[in-house]
Design brief:
mainly alpha; 8% strand
Length: 75
């Protein structure tokens, strides 16, 4: 059975960084009364991380800059 290369998997430390970014953006959405498409948010976060944006602060800034891709106003 073929197996995916190890490079496609995130280490626990990397998953924790991505999870904190997702959690922060989700908290931001509640503050700004927006609705989040969670799948797109997670996909965006992982894609950025896997493309080399591995610093948590920088990753958060990049994800926030793309907020219009996964949020909509609810109020």
């Amino acid at each position: 059975m073929p197996r995916a290369p190890k490079s496609q998997f995130l280490r626990p430390k990397d998953r924790a960084i991505c999870q904190r970014v997702v959690d922060q953006v989700t908290a931001d959405a509640k503050w700004y009364s927006t609705s989040i498409d969670g799948q797109i948010l997670v996909s965006t976060t992982l894609a950025l991380f896997q493309s080399g944006v591995v610093n948590e602060t920088t990753l958060l800034a990049h994800v926030r800059a793309r907020r219009h891709d996964f949020t909509k106003l609810t109020g």
